[in-house]
Amino acid sequence: MNNLKKQIILLLFLCGIVFWSQAGRAEYRVFQYLVKSRYFIPRNNMPYIVTSTFDPVTYLAYNGGESSLNIELLRSWMCYGDTSYKRYCNPPRKLKLSPPEKL
Questions:
Q1: pLDDT score at 31
Q2: pTM of the model
Q3: Which domain, by its residues, includes 53?
Q4: Structural domain includes residue 36
Q5: Residue 4 has what pLDDT?
Q6: Is residue 83 a part of any domain in this protein?
């Protein structure tokens, strides 16, 4: 009888883990940067826009550091839900703010 109780408890525990893991939600932040090279290269030294999941510190460290790149954070946004093997989600639309009313 004691062995049967242990098996039932173990089965309920394993079922709970399976159902709990299915309820998990994923999310990540997307960053958009204006990247400029700090090196003088006569050809194509124009700034360019990069979209990445790296935060500013990680992006700089991964791509050569502050001595080689200058980045400017343009915007960031969250992507919610299961985003496995998908492109970055679109940024939210900008809200049009109406001018304050005069009293």
A1: 94
A2: 0.62
A3: 24-92
A4: yes
A5: 82
A6: yes
